[in-house]
Each structure stands twice: as structure tokens, then as C-alpha cells.
Write a structure and sequence with these properties.
Cyclin A, domain 1; mainly alpha; globular; 271 residues
Length: 271
């Protein structure tokens, strides 16, 4: 309160727009089966794991990482991509996301270098053009990170989870990026599910009233998304895709990657 930059007066309208936009811009939840002939869910996971490393190397904000993965999924929903060009699509989408989200985006040449010069500058620029065409130049799609910032604030209103709630929810949400099955859920559902899982992991009640109001739904409406994220959190310590785990294992994030997953989640059907 009192922060003019918070745009409190406009918050309901902003959220209305975000909830509408997430449905309009969501990718196909089954593009591996319907559109791709050489790319599978495992390859997608390996690509996303690498993009997490790229984002860390370039010190990109989390919004950029989420936007890059969302762009990849939207492009793969409408463009069949040869296996050898999947990394190129990831690079192009990260370049686009960085231009949209960052104050100072890495240069094209830096993206070429990060691929060990696997692709030329011309190839990256051509892939960027093709990706923008596939996206119909619509780069305003909200991601789970867009909603997470708001939901964490609501989820922390009762003090549940303390200072570790925000980094743990962010960790759970980024683990969700690795999951192809997460495409079955809206970004707002994944964000709410991440906060729910984080609160339970930290010993707080799963679904406080402020979170319910912010998410505009009941806990049962995000139960499936929360179950997916809970599974990802439980598998993270032994996952062969370690980038997210390693990122959140440092003191800057309160070492939340070392926290155990709650087992099991409470019954959310009546919340």
C-alpha cells in the first residue's frame, strides 16, 4: 500500500486481462503427438534444462526463462522442427524473450557463442524471424511467473512459509517448466499450484483465503497441477536434468532445493 508503482487501482483490470490472455495464447498440450515427428517429450526436457543453464550464464531474470520456454512450446505447437534444429529454436526463442523482458539483452553473437558456434549468426537470425512468424508477433502471453509474483504475495499474507516461501515457490514453478505434461494446465494454475506445494512443504496450510481470492478458484481446481508439481519436486533430487535444482541449491535462494517434498499432499477436494 502507498506504492504508486504497484498500480493498485488498476489491479483488477490487469488480472482480468492476464486471465483472458493466458487462454488465448496457450500452446497445444499434445504437440509432440500431433505436430512433431522428430521431437519428443524427453528432448524437450533436455532443451529446457539447457535453457535454464543459458539463463543462468547470461544472468537473465526468471521472467525471461519462463517466456523463452513458453515461446518454444508455442512454436513447436505449429511448426514441425527437425531434431537437429531444436536447440536453434530454443536459442531463437530465448533471444526473443530476452529482448522483450531484459533491460540489456545478450547479443546475437553471444547466443552463437553459447552454442559453441553450432549455428551461425545468420541461422540464429533466420530462426528468430521464423519463430516470430509462428508466434504471430504476439509476445505478451502471460507465463506462470507472471502470476506467481502476485500469488506468492497473497500466499504470504498470513505469514505462512516465511522468507523461504517465495524462493521455494519459484523453484517448484521452474521444475514445472521441465514437465511436458504441464502444458495441460494454464499458467495461473501452475503458479497457484506452486505456491500451494511450497506452503505445504514449509508446514503451512495449503490454501489460505488470500491465495484463493488471488487465484480466483478453489484448491480442488488446481489439485491436478499441484500433484504434477509435487511429483516434480519429489523427483528433483535424483533427476538427470539438474539445472533447476543446482540453481536453487545456493544460499541466495535459501538452499530451497535441499528441502524435502511433502509426502503426500493433503486432500484438496474440499478446500
Amino acid at each position: 500500500m502507498g506504492d504508486a508503482l504497484a498500480c493498485v487501482d488498476y489491479l483488477p483490470d490487469i488480472l482480468d486481462s492476464l486471465f483472458e490472455s493466458e487462454r488465448r495464447t496457450r500452446p497445444c498440450a499434445a504437440y509432440v503427438e500431433s505436430t512433431q515427428t522428430e521431437v519428443n517429450a524427453t528432448m524437450r526436457g533436455i532443451l529446457v534444462d539447457w535453457l535454464v543453464e543459458v539463463a543462468s550464464e547470461f544472468r537473465l531474470v526468471s521472467d525471461t526463462l519462463h517466456a523463452a520456454v513458453a515461446c518454444v512450446d508455442r512454436v513447436l505447437s505449429v511448426r514441425p522442427v527437425p531434431r537437429l534444429h531444436l536447440q536453434l529454436v530454443g536459442v531463437a526463442c530465448t533471444l526473443i524473450a530476452a529482448k522483450y523482458e531484459e533491460i540489456y539483452a545478450p547479443s546475437v553473437d553471444e547466443f552463437v557463442f553459447i552454442t559453441d558456434n553450432t549455428y551461425t549468426r545468420a541461422a540464429v537470425l533466420a530462426a528468430e524471424t521464423d519463430a516470430l512468424d509462428a508466434l504471430a508477433f504476439d509476445l505478451s502471453a502471460p507465463t506462470a511467473k507472471t502470476f506467481l509474483r502476485r500469488f506468492v504475495k497473497a500466499g504470504a499474507a498470513d505469514g505462512g512459509g516465511g522468507e523461504r516461501l517465495a524462493p521455494l515457490a519459484a523453484y517448484v514453478c521452474e521444475l514445472g517448466l521441465l514437465e511436458y505434461a504441464s502444458l495441460h494446465f494454464l499458467p495461473s494454475q501452475l503458479a497457484a499450484g506452486a505456491v500451494l506445494v511450497a506452503r505445504v512443504a514449509l508446514g503451512a496450510s495449503p490454501w489460505p483465503p488470500a491465495l484463493a481470492r488471488a487465484a480466483r478458484c478453489a484448491a480442488r481446481d488446481v489439485a491436478a497441477a499441484a500433484a504434477l508439481l509435487h511429483g516434480a519436486l519429489a523427483r528433483a533430487p535424483t533427476s538427470t536434468l539438474p539445472a533447476v535444482r543446482d540453481k536453487y541449491a545456493v544460499p541466495a535462494y535459501h538452499c530451497v532445493a535441499a528441502l524435502p517434498a511433502p509426502a503426500p499432499l493433503p486432500d484438496l477436494g474440499r478446500l
